[in-house]
Amino acid sequence: xxxxxxxxxxxxxxRFSAGAGLAIxxxxxxxxxxxxxxxxxxxxxxxxxxxxxxxxxxSLISAFLLVYTLTAPxxxxxxxxxxxxxxxxxxxxFWSLATALSGFAGSYLxxxxxxxxxxxxxxxxxxxxxxxxxxYFPERQRSRIMAIFFCAIPVGSALGYxxxxxxxxxxxxxxxxxxxxxxxxxxxxxxxxxxxxxRGVQDGAPTPASDGPxxxxxxxxxxxxxxxATYRRLFANLPYRLTIFGYAAYTFAIGGLAAWMPAFLxxxxxxxxxxxxxxxxxIVVITxxxxxxxxxxxxxxxxxYSRESFLWLCAIATLLAAPFVWGALTTTSTTxxxxxxxxxxxxxxxxxxxxxxxxxxxxxxxxRASAVALGVFAIHILGDVFSPSLIGFVSDATSLAQAVxxxxxxxxxxxxxxxFAARAQAREPVVPAAA
Length: 435
Fold this sequence. Notes:
The chain is mainly α. It has helices at residues 3-16, 18-41, 43-47, 54-79, 84-102, 108-134, 142-150, 152-171, 173-191, 212-220, 223-236, 238-267, 275-303, 309-330, 334-349, 352-361, 368-384, 387-397, 400-403, 406-427. Mean pLDDT is 82; it is low at 4-16, 206-221 and 430-435.
């Protein structure tokens, strides 16, 4: 068999397992977000027995995100050079164990430490899984594939609220952490069934580690030197850089809403404990599924006519969402709140698939895990690492009703930056798939 035929056969073999890989990664990603947001569902129950302020509660989210953000670049570098399924399996096991340990907390510091450890495991998973998917599927399908994978954001987050709220109401907040963390330990075994295709196999570069000067430097340099060189190249990529900055403002807004909406509905809207989390969870899961899938389909459809379509879709949808988010947080009418929140969330979730597809398409195939990792670092360190704590701080100083008004401002900023990112992509060519 000649070399070309061997490469075609190898490429086809990876395609046969792509659907199973997507299913496994998307299913596990659901638990990723369930474990992440179950703590928000039990905020009010944690406050009394552990004597926590709103600033303390917000810091539980921020501590997780800070560790997640700081460890993401390490896992991104490893993900571009080591076996990706094994790294993912480690991450799933570690974050699930840390979630279960949160249920044993007897003090604020114990709970803070356990939530911080969750960030290590989720950093391993969140930075590497998208790069694996990019090597399972061709570019023309990536917006839809990323939409399927990231539909776990609304579904998992909603399940975090619903499961956390129901378990908390019947058996207490400790049981909520045990139920959330337990299944993930077993799910880590599923990751070992994943296949690790050659990087760039879907971009016309079946063996990118041996083709071209960029790949040669990538293979021969030491891990530390190569990592720094990679991150310097990524930061010099203007469309990628602006995309990440817009994503950071978007993440600030999403993170603030995710952390504080159950408490906002209880205090400001008068919802009963548990009901608030479940009510918001229902909105998130419905709008998230519809918005994410519609956004993924629209992104791939528009991509036929313009390579900047992913970013323009993100910009337009986010700018349209801003007034509805503002209305949901300021109206005193329950009916208007529901209408505004549903429309605002639908428009916000349209960006999920396209923005993540844009990130992996704007960089070289052999640097995608690093690109996702650098993006994770930036969007969280500039976004939701401090938005829950900032909202909690402003709430302690004024009121929660005033503090949440920060969110729609961040939504507008994200849309404006994505407009600039789309224009930058139009002026500059993307990094070629194979150097």
